[in-house]
Specification:
Keywords: FAD, Flavoprotein, Oxidoreductase. By secondary structure, the chain is of the alpha+beta class. It has two domains: 274 residues, FAD/NAD(P)-binding domain (3-Layer(bba) Sandwich); 154 residues, Succinate dehydrogenase/fumarate reductase flavoprotein, catalytic domain (Flavocytochrome C3, Chain A, domain 1), CATH 3.90.700. The strands form five sheets. Strands 1, 2, 6, 7, 8, 9, 20 and 21 form an eight-stranded mixed β-sheet that branches. Strands 10, 12, 13, 14, 15 and 18 form a six-stranded mixed β-sheet that branches. The protein has a three-stranded antiparallel β-sheet with strand order 3-5-4. β8 and β9 form a beta hairpin.
Amino acid sequence: MIDVLVIGGGNAALCAALMAREAGASVMVLESAPREWRGGNSQHTRNLRCMHDAPQDVLLEAYPEEEFWQDLLKVTGGITNEHLARVAIRHSATCRDWMRKHGVNFQPPLSGTLHLARTNAFFMGGGKALINAYYRSAEALGVDIRYDCTVDALELDGGRFVAARIGDTRIEARTCVLASGGFESNLAWLREAWGQNERGEWPADNFLIRGTRYNMGVLLRYMIDAGADIIGDPSQSHCVAIDARAPLYDGGICTRIDCVSLGVVVNRDAQRFYDEGEDFWPKRYAIWGRLTAMQPGQIAYSIIDAKAVGRFMPPVFPGTKANTLEELARAVGLDEAAFVDTIKQYNAACRIGTFDHTVLDDCHTEGVTPAKTHWARPIDTAPFYAYPVRPGITFTYLGLKVDEDATVHFGGQPSPNLFAAGEMMAGNVLGKGYTAGVGMTIGTAFGRIAGTSAAAAALNKNEGARREAA
C-alpha cells in the first residue's frame, strides 16, 4: 500500500510529495491534467514573497515578519487566521535553500517589478521552470506520478481517509494530501457563488480564468458534502483586472494590466470608480478584478497618456492608441462627452508635486471623487492609450479549514490521516485581497508541512504494524 497519496500536481502538491519522499515514505501523485498542462496555476507564477531580516542573495535590505504580517493584514482587512499566516510567513524565510536543492533557481527582479525587489524572490524561468524542476526531482526520488487522473470521490471512514476513486479505479493509501486547487475553472460554480446583481446581470458570465482549466473543484465539493470543516467566502478570490481580449483559460501573467496606478480607470459609463493610486501596485493589483466585477457589464478601461509609457510591464496586447481624448473614446465605444468630461475633471483636480512611482509620492487630487492619493498627473500628453479590462480569476478562497500541521478537520476534530495544502486551504490565510507572491508562500509552506505530516502519520502506522507483526 502507498504511504502518501498526493492529489494535485501544482507547487503545493509537489512540495508535499518531495517532503514525504525525503522522509522515507512511498509517494504517488495524481495530476488531473495531461502531462503537457501539468502544474496547475503554479506554471503561471513568477515569485515567492519571503520574510528576511537582512539582505539575502536576490533579496534586498530586510523584510521582517511583522512588516509581512502587516502587509497581509492590510490587504485581507483582518479576514485571516493570524497564527496560520505567521506559520507561512516564518516558513518563507527558510524554504529557498530546500527549493534550490530541488532545482529551483532564483534571479533578481526584472524591469517593471522593482517594487518587489525587497519582498519577493523571482524564479529563473518563472513558474513553468519551477514546476519542471520539482517534477524532475520527484521522478529522480522515485515518486510515482500519474497524469490525466481526476479523482472524483474519496472513501472516508468518519474523518479517516481510506481510498481515492478515479471512476471505477480505487487507490488506497495510508495517508492523503489534498492539493487539487480551488474551483475557479468551474464556471457554473462561479455563477452560483456570485449570483445575480441589482442590474439583472450574472457577473461571473463575464469572468476570465487566468490560470488552469483543470481546477474544477471536484474534490472540494466532495469534501464539503462529506462534512469537512470549510472556511472562506465562495465569491472571494485572487481576482485581477486583466485584458478583456485574453483567452478564457490560461492567459497567465502576460494578460495583466499594470498601468492602472499611472493613469485612471473608467467604467463603460466613462466614470471613475476607485482610487487608482491607493498603494503600490503589487499590494493593490488583485483588488481591481473584483472592483471591475462590480461595474456595469463587468468591463472597465485603463487610460494612460504618453508620460506613462515605459514605466510598467507591457501586456501581451497593445493598447488602443489615439491622438485625442475624443478619438480614444470613439475607438473603445465610450460616450465621447462623458469621457472627456471625466478626464478634464480629473486633470483639473491634480496637485502635482514630485512624481516618483517608486515611492508613495505627493502627487494627488483634490476636489474630485474618487480621489487619487498618489501618482496623480494630468492625462494631457498625446498619444493616449486605453486597455479594456475584465475580472480575471486566478484562484478561489473557499477551502478546507486546517491547523498548523495542515490537518483537515471534521466537526472540529482533526483527521488522523488527511491533510490539505495550497489553494485548497489558502482561505485560512486569505479571506480576501492579495499581495504579490503570497499564494506561492502559502503553497510552499503548507505543501511542505502537509507532506511532512502525512509521512509521519503513515510511517508511524507502519511502525505500529511492524510491532504488531513481531
